[in-house]
Amino acid sequence: MAIELIRLIEKVSHMDIKLMAGEGGTHCLVRWVHMVEATESSDFVDDGQLVFTTGIGIGSPDRLIDLVKAVRRRGAVGVIVNIGPYIEKIPEEVIQYCNENDYPLYEVPWKIHLAEIMSICYMAITREDQRSLETSAAVKNAIFFPKQEELYVVPLSQRSFKVNWRYSVTVMRLNSITGSNYEDRLEKLCITLDNLIRHHNKSFSIFVNDMEIILVFANLNEAELKKEIEGLQEVIKSLLMRDEEISIGVGRLTKSVRCLYKSYNQALSIEKLSRNKKIPKDKVFYSELGIYRLLMGIDDREIMTEYYSHTLKPLLDYDAVNNSDLCGTLRCYLHNNGSVKETADELFVHRNTINYKLNKIEELLNIEVSSVAARTELMMAFYLQDIL
Questions:
Q1: Does the pLDDT value for residue 1 go beyond 80?
Q2: Are strands 3-4 and 105-109 parallel, antiparallel or unpaired?
Q3: What is the pLDDT of residue 283?
Q4: How confident is the model at residue 180 (pLDDT cuts 50, 70, 90)?
Q5: Are 344 and 350 in contact (CB under 8 A)?
Q6: Are 333 and 343 in contact (CB under 8 A)?
């Protein structure tokens, strides 16, 4: 994980550190710190690092601009300059460049040892990582091992998460056309959201699990939860690249932390429905999902699978053997309230083709598709197919 630069600087504010330029960039994320004393050594800087320098290796204060530009190109989030015998004053050219690019530039007097500031930064970043890892580990245990309460009740209580608070899980999956650097993109998005939420809410946990981001909010009511998620959706839109989109599912608020796994399973199902275009992209909340809410309440997935398979298996087998799409035709017919004409129009085929397929479906399933009871059973099976 990482820590926001402005929060990191607060921890060393007592050491006469002064922001000289680039205030607009102080909300960027710091992953680590790095000492750079010459422009040539900037190649060793990694993305997300905060750079420190005394200027001993640059030869002249006028060359500080070259070092700043070099580390910025490498992805460093800002520069802290030790003012003293090597750089008596930061050149105006450097200040102007940093202001134009919202690139944070700080100075500290020579009497302050950079090693002390760097040590405090090391500890702050490490503590942030440790806090986040321990909290997310406890939340994972609550989700995946709900019966082993010793793995999460006490650890979360020690981090000010009360057992009887209401909790809600949000699952997010990043879908990319290219799929390049997927894990890195997911991690960066997670860090950005973590720091964004932390400005106004301390009772949450966010982490990457497998191919998804899991976000858990605690101690919110329905209205507050909806406001949080809708705000995040707007932020996420601005963070996505051109070839990316994100699917989101939000589980219902639980009665306590012991029910966290239920909210997670609901969120997971909703995210899958959204990703597969089975529900509108703006319908991400459990409370908005109609009949799906009822089906998500079935804990025994074997029962769901059995019902779905028993109802549609003859069609599935026929389609697999004959490379046909009777299932697709039937679902379209049901969505069009049994209208052959509307089904034919949607599928761009003749009405006779639809009638022929419906006759075949009735023969395979031994039902009358015009029957209300049959349509209800079939539609229920398709809804279960969406969830499974």
A1: no
A2: unpaired
A3: 86
A4: low
A5: yes
A6: yes
Regarding beta strands 49-53 and 78-83, do their DSSP bridges make them parallel or antiparallel, or are they unpaired?
A: parallel
Give the predicted TM-score (pTM) of the model: 0.72
How confident is the model at residue 177, as a pLDDT?
A: 59
Least confidently predicted of 33-42, 131-140, 252-261, 306-315: 306-315
Q: How far apart are alpha carbons 286 and 266 in whole angstroms?
A: 7
Q: Would you tell me how many other CB atoms lie within 10 Å of the CB of residue 272?
A: 18
pLDDT at 248: 95
More confident residue, 118 or 195: 118
Give dist(CA 262, CA 169) in Å, integer: 9
Backbone angles phi, psi at 313, to 5 degrees: -55, -45
Contact 165, 151 (CB under 8 A): no
Q: Give the torsion sign (CA, 171, 176, 181, 185).
A: negative
Could you give the dihedral angle defined by the CA atoms of residues 179, 183, 189 and 194, in that order, rounded to the nearest 10 degrees?
Answer: 160
The backbone torsions φ and ψ at residue 174, rounded to the nearest 5 degrees and listed phi first, read: -90, 125
Q: What is the pLDDT of residue 293?
A: 78
Alpha helix positions (H), the chain? 5-10, 64-73, 92-100, 114-144, 153-158, 182-198, 222-239, 260-275, 291-296, 301-322, 326-335, 340-347, 351-365, 372-387
The rounded Cα 121 to chain-centroid distance in angstroms is: 26
pLDDT for the residue numbered 288? 84
**pLDDT on residue 303:** 83
pLDDT of residue 195: 78
Cβ atoms within 10 Å, residue 232: 18
CB-based contacts of 248, cutoff 8 Å, min separation 6: 170, 171, 172, 229, 233, 270, 271, 274, 284
Query: What whole-number distance in Å separates Cα of residue 218 and Cα of residue 321?
Result: 50
User: How, if at all, do strands 32-35 and 49-53 pair?
Assistant: parallel
Q: Which helix (H) or strand (E) holds 173?
A: strand 167-176
Per-residue confidence (pLDDT) for residue 103, from 0 to 100: 97
Encoding tokens for residue 311? 């109802």
Question: How many whole angstroms from its chain centre is CA 74?
Answer: 25
| Residue indicated by tokens 């799929």 | 179
User: For residues 1 and 30, what is the distance between their CA atoms, to the nearest angstrom?
Assistant: 9
| Contacts with 386 (C-beta within 8 Å, 6 or more apart), sequence order | 272, 273, 276, 278, 292
Confidence of residue 65 (pLDDT cuts 50, 70, 90): very high
Contact 224, 280 (CB under 8 A): no
